Amino acid sequence: MPTYEYKCDKCGHGMDVFQSMKDNPLTKCPVCKNDKLRRVIGTGAGIIFKGSGFYCTDYRSENYKKSVAKDKNEPAKTETAPKDKDKKPTAKVEA
Predict the structure, then answer these.
(1) Around 54, how many Cα atoms within 13 Å sit in the side-chain half-sphere?
(2) Do the beta carbons of residue 78 and residue 44 sit within 8 Å?
(3) Inter-residue contact 5 to 38 (CB < 8 Å)
(4) CA 63, CA 72: separation in Å to the nearest integer?
(5) CA 9 from chain center: how many Å?
(6) What is the pLDDT along the chain (95 residues), one digit of tens a residue?
């Protein structure tokens, strides 16, 4: 749940409120009791990565994981070289 910043246009009181995205914005100032409270558009919070590391493969979908497992189990297809009997004989030229 995000934290929203509010400021009262009447008294100037500011506050941060931790509320759900589905909740309606607050309108009544807790200090002056007027309906002049508005949500301030802020810069937002930065993402902080902690831990030993994050990789693009950490959160792969189940379909992707099944597809990779299937590919590993199937033998690789290789092209075979044409056999010697399929080749046409070449004429030797003697000088």
Answers:
(1) 7
(2) no
(3) no
(4) 14
(5) 38
(6) 788 899 999 999 999 998 888 999 999 999 999 999 999 987 666 666 676 666 666 667 788 888 888 888 876 666 665 565 556 666 666 66
Round to whole Å and give the CA distance between 65 and 71: 10
Residues 6+ apart with CB under 8 A from 28: 34, 35, 37
DSSP 67: H
Using DSSP, state whether 37 is helix, strand or coil. Answer: strand
End-to-end Cα separation, the chain, in angstroms: 91
> Tokens at residue 33, please?
């009791």
| Predicted structure pTM score | 0.45
* Token pair listed for 30: 């807790």
The percent of the chain in helix, strand and coil, each rounded to the nearest 5, is: 15, 15, 70
